[in-house]
Amino acid sequence: MLTVYDYSMAKILGESEIDGFLVGDSLGMNVLGFPSTLQVTMDHMVHHTRAVVRASPRQLVVVDMPFMSYEPSNEVAVKNAGILASEGADAVKLEGGVEVYDRVANIVKFGVPVMGHIGLTPQRYLTLGGYRTVKDESKLISDALALEEAGVFSIVIENVYAEIARKITERVSVPTICIGAGPYCDGQVLVIHDLLGMGDIQPYFSRKYLDLKTEIREAVKRYVDDVRTGKFPGKENYKSRES
Ligand code: KIV
């Protein structure tokens, strides 16, 4: 699984063998320049969901429910999950374990599949004391079991010890999708900006498959040089009455 935030990337990745897209609220930092995911709103998520869905990808499109779009009440959660589904999300993802049991159960009851997200839950970084590895094994297992019982079809496990992610994967019947939680899960998810080398920070648990930031800088430098030295536009780039 990979995060995807816009039409052109959804078109390119849509041709790949990736199984699932996540319109992640990490778009707040990666696309909108926010300091965290707490500034991301339902309007942002709807805007980016529409862009991804317009590419008609064959992949499952999971959309993050942003901060405070599900916490206040079951009614608010169901309403906002419904909005994302009606914009083309195949499923929604929300953060938390035991404490979101009712939210998950209600959203699923009214027809929208839910992916859980436990471990490091970035929307709670203030109360977690930062973006830390979550180590409380018994709480993580209780959270995973609660989510399974509430009806999630899959669980993202973020930034926990690999051995704990393995235990959770063995205990639950739904697929676990990991990020920074080791190899013993059913699947992996990465942020596309990290994979392409476009992010501001490169987390230790991601892998840069391309250094796109450097490639972009070099391409733009070549363009600027070509314009300044008269090499662009070339004859093939414009029409002239004489040709
Ligand atoms: O928003 C996001 O990118 C995520 C992934 C880290 C799983 O939730």
Overview in brief:
The protein has 243 residues and is α/β, with parallel strands linked by helices. It has helices at 7-14, 27-30, 42-53, 74-86, 101-109, 125-128, 137-150, 162-171, 192-195, 212-228, and strands at residues 2-3, 20-23, 60-64, 91-93, 114-119, 154-158, 176-179, 187-188.
Helices and strands, with pairings:
Layout: E1 2-3, H1 7-14, E2 20-23, H2 27-30, H3 42-53, E3 60-64, H4 74-86, E4 91-93, H5 101-109, E5 114-119, H6 125-128, H7 137-150, E6 154-158, H8 162-171, E7 176-179, E8 187-188, H9 192-195, H10 212-228
Parallel strand pairs: 1-2, 2-3, 3-4, 4-5, 5-6, 6-7, 7-8
Helix pairs in contact: 1-3, 4-5, 5-7, 7-8
Bound molecules: 3-methyl-2-oxobutanoic acid.
User: Biggest sheet: strands side by side, in what order?
Assistant: 1-2-3-4-5-6-7-8
Low-pLDDT stretches are none
Could you give a short account of the major beta sheet?
8 strands, parallel
Number of strands: 8
Order of helices and strands: EHEHHEHEHEHHEHEEHH
Q: What percent of residues adopt helix (DSSP H or I)? A: 25-40%
